[in-house]
Amino acid sequence: MLSTNATLWPMIAHVALVFCLYWMLSKKRVAAVRSGRVEVAQFRENLQEPAESLLVHNNIKNQFELPVLFHIVCLVLYASTADNWGTVALSWLFVASRFAHAYVHVTSNRLRYRRPLFMLGFFTLGALWVWQAVWLALN
């Protein structure tokens, strides 16, 4: 088995995506306030996200749904030494699907492209969990 830090790098890459999205959200919100389209007070409870930043805001929420299971499985794979080059490759595929999904979501937001990217990540993540279960059953 691999059991090296290679398993952790896809997690770090996903965290980098989340930080980039937060930076993008901040820039869009500041621009909306500076243009006078929204008031700063609107963000106090943020009951209604401005149109300028809505897609980024929604995508950030997406990064704390399915990816939470990704981070958990990566840590469990690492701790149980079930990680190998296959799981690292699947992890990178999951993260690549999240980057592509985020790009489509914050640009065109076309479901025609977004849904297949989500499904790619969904099935990739499922494969990681199945491998973890098989590993635990056999060891």
Give a description of the structure.
- The protein is an all-alpha fold.
- The chain contains six helices and no strands.
- It is elongated and about 60 Å long.
User: Which residues sit in consecutive blocks of at least 5 with pLDDT less than 50?
Assistant: none
Q: Give the strand content.
A: under 5%
Helix content: over 70%
Q: Note the run of SSEs as H and E.
A: HHHHHH
- Tell me the distance between the termini: 13 Å
SS-derived structural category: mainly alpha
**Shape annotation:** elongated
The count of strands amounts to 0
- What's the main sheet like? none
| Tally of contiguous helical segments | 6
Computed over alpha carbons, the radius of gyration is 18 Å
Mean pLDDT: 94
Quick summary of this structure?
Helices cover 74% and strands 0% of the residues. With 139 residues, the chain is mainly alpha-helical.
SSE layout:
Blueprint: H1 9-34, H2 42-45, H3 54-62, H4 66-79, H5 85-106, H6 111-138
List keywords for this structure.
elongated; mainly alpha
